[in-house]
Amino acid sequence: MKYKLLGKSGLKVSELALGAMTFGTETGIGVDREEARTVYETFREAGGNFVDTANVYNRGTSELFLGDFLKGDRERVVVATKYTGAMRGRDVNASGNSRKNMMDSVHASLKRLDTDYIDLYWAHAWDASTPTEELMRGLDDLVTQGKVLYVGISDTPAWVVSRANMLAELRGWSQFVGLQIRYSLIDRSVERELLPMSRALDIAVTPWGIVGSGILSGKYNINPEAEGRAAMRGRIDDRALGIAAEVVAVADELGVTATQVAIAWLLRGPANIIPLVGARTVAQLEENLGCLSVELDEPQMERLNAISSISPGFPHDMLSAQAGGRDQKISNHRRWTSGGYL
Predict the structure, then answer these.
(1) Which of 48-52, 131-135, 290-294, 315-319 has the lowest mean pLDDT?
(2) Catalytic amino acids?
(3) 167 and 198 Cβ atoms separated by less than 8 Å
(4) Domain hosting residue 200, numbered range
């Protein structure tokens, strides 16, 4: 395992993060304490030091399990958790990004995690009702109080994130150093705005859904009627199956699994990317960790990029067409394409 700086911060995190959504059985997609502990310990033995959870994962059980696993190891682990989601039923103030929910949530998370501080505290999603000033001032207060060391934002439009960081910079508050978003070969829409923003503002990206709800494993190519998240969400179509087939073809050439190829592609992405790997079993985690040994050559990257390409959308397509051959003689490191900055 190698390590990366988390965005513009000095925090060093492993190149893969362990997602702890599967810690607990309350929502039917996770595992019990002992299996979760084995997954956690395997990740730590592999050199992983970055573990990501949320207050709502398995109704708080994920944080409880993680707090137990951290005993005797707390200072060596970068612990990330989130707030925004509702934890008190119909209480209207128990969700969203308001200062009230923020303060209630962070104290509850600190108790469940059995720790004095949280390394990285995420706003789990944009709620479109809390003023940006309230969100950023509240998060900065948590940093000032020592309850939180760094802050991040998840599942939020690029314009909101950039405005929030500019506001924080102007007022001397803590800025977002991490961005958590859905990103995979199946869904590259974040390349239009979110990834260019993350690169320009030096915000680390921790993508979730990295195997496209299981589609990129290739299992739906074998059995399109197989049960799973992708089937449940109606995300299986000819385009998705075509992308998965190319991933499987590259995996066969390299003698690795399709899942490993899908994650290896992300690690070559056009940003400071730290994929979130989740696992219900040690075998699944070890398969995910195997991506670190996968070397994709340029022709293979080109094939994967071509089969999964998306339209850049307006105004990027118009601006590219207007530029035409004018920019071909200029080496412009600020010009963004779907493959990153040129």
Answers:
(1) 315-319
(2) 57
(3) no
(4) 3-323+331-341
